[in-house]
Write a structure and sequence with these properties.
By secondary structure, the chain is mainly beta. It has one helix at 2-9; strands at 11-19, 23-32, 36-38, 47-49, 55-60, 64-70, 88-90.
Length: 91
């Protein structure tokens, strides 16, 4: 049982949507700790639910380019610099 709990702690599940306030095309995204992962809907995300995780989002593939770190929900990226700009993530 302890090994299962350790695996769960090493992964983050974040919820990403193309519309503000978690509307539009939404999906859960599983990201292993330290893994760089491409986001679905490249350059089209407008809201992110962090589910108590902290992740760094990047404007380019391979976790490169401009970056921003979120540790709380972002219900409207349209109010900032990174709306429809995010391509990859590392948690």
């Amino acid at each position: 049982m302890l090994s299962v709990m350790a695996v769960v702690a090493d992964a983050a599940t974040i919820y990403v949507c193309t519309g503000a306030k978690y509307t539009g095309d939404c999906t859960d995204l599983d990201v292993s700790a330290g893994e760089c992962k491409l986001l679905p809907k490249n350059d089209a995300l407008s809201s992110v639910r962090m589910n108590s995780y902290s992740c760094t989002f990047y404007t380019d593939k391979g976790c490169s380019g401009l970056k921003t770190t979120f540790s709380s929900d972002q219900e409207n990226l349209r109010d900032g610099t990174f709306n429809d700009q995010l391509t990859s993530v590392r948690c």
